[in-house]
Design a protein that fits this description.
Layout (H helix, E strand, L loop, with lengths): L14 H11 L8 E4 L15 H28 L2 E6 L12 H18 L5 E6 L3 E2 L3 H5 L11 E2 L1 H13 L4 E2 L3 H12 L2 H14 L12
InterPro entries: NAD(P)-bd_dom_sf, SDR_fam
Family: Belongs to the short-chain dehydrogenases/reductases (SDR) family.
Keywords: NADP, Oxidoreductase
Length: about 220
C-alpha cells in the first residue's frame, strides 16, 4: 500500500512557524493519528551564564513548542476519540546534569504525565519516551564527547523506535527502553537526591564540549 508524505518546514524556535504546525495538526480534513514531539538540540550554556540566548531558544523549542503541539494534537484527537502523543524526553530528566537540559527534560516528562491525566478515558494516550544514550549523530554534531560512556549503555535507534511505538500503543505513560535502563532509572529514583546530584556532577565533568556549534537537532 502506498504512502503519502507531506513536508512542512518549520523552525520551532519561531512562534509563527509553531502556529503553522498547530493549524495543520488541528485540520479535521487531514487527521494526524500519532504526534512525535522530537525536536531538540544539545545545550552548552551554563545555567548561570549572563547570556540567556541559548536557554531562550531551548525553552521555545523543547518546552513551549512541545506544549503547543501537544495541546493542539490533544484537542484534535480528543474530538475524534483516538490518537497517540509521544513526547521525547530523556533519562537526563531523572538526574541533574548541567546546562539546563536535565531540567527541561524533567519538565517534558512531567508535562506528559499531566496531559495523560487530562486525556484519561478519551481514547488519546500520551507517552514520555525517556531514552539514554542512543547511536545517532546527535552527540557528534553537538560536539559532546562520547568518551567514558560504557558500550553497554548505548541503544540502537531502530530498536528504540519499535519499543517506543509499542509502549505508546499500550498506553504506557513513561517509556524507558531496555531492561538495563529501567533498572538504572529505578535505582536513581530510590537514591537520595544528594547522591543523584553527586553522580550528575561526576558525569558532567567527564564530558568535554568542542568549540563547534552549540545546537544540534535530534
Amino acid at each position: 500500500m502506498g504512502r503519502e508524505v507531506e513536508i512542512m518546514p518549520a523552525d520551532l524556535a519561531k512562534r509563527a512557524d509553531v502556529a503553522k504546525v498547530v493549524k495543520r495538526l488541528e485540520d479535521p480534513k487531514k487527521p494526524v493519528d500519532v504526534l512525535v514531539n522530537n525536536a531538540g538540540f544539545g545545550m552548552h550554556s551554563r545555567l548561570s551564564d549572563a547570556d540567556s540566548t541559548g536557554h531562550d531558544r531551548a525553552f521555545e523549542v523543547m518546552v513551549r513548542s512541545v506544549r503547543e503541539l501537544g495541546a493542539a494534537s490533544a484537542r484534535a484527537m480528543r474530538a475524534r476519540g483516538r490518537g497517540r502523543i509521544i513526547n521525547v524526553s530523556s533519562t537526563a530528566g531523572f538526574v541533574a546534569m548541567s546546562s539546563g537540559y536535565s531540567s527541561i527534560k524533567a519538565w517534558v516528562t512531567s508535562f506528559s504525565e499531566s496531559l495523560s491525566n487530562e486525556l484519561h478515558g478519551t481514547g488519546v494516550t500520551v507517552t514520555a519516551l525517556c531514552p539514554g544514550w542512543v547511536h545517532t549523530e546527535f552527540h557528534d554534531r553537538a560536539g559532546i564527547s562520547k568518551g567514558g560512556i560504557p558500550s553497554w549503555l548505548w541503544l540502537d535507534a531502530d530498536k528504540l523506535v519499535r519499543a517506543a511505538l509499542r509502549d505508546a500503543e499500550r498506553g504506557k505513560v513513561i517509556s524507558i527502553p531496555t531492561v538495563r535502563y529501567k533498572v538504572l532509572m529505578g535505582i536513581v529514583r530510590h537514591l537520595p537526591r544528594s547522591t543523584v546530584r553527586a553522580i550528575s556532577r561526576a558525569i558532567s565533568s567527564s564530558r568535554t564540549v568542542s568549540s563547534g556549534s552549540s545546537t544540534v537537532t535530534k
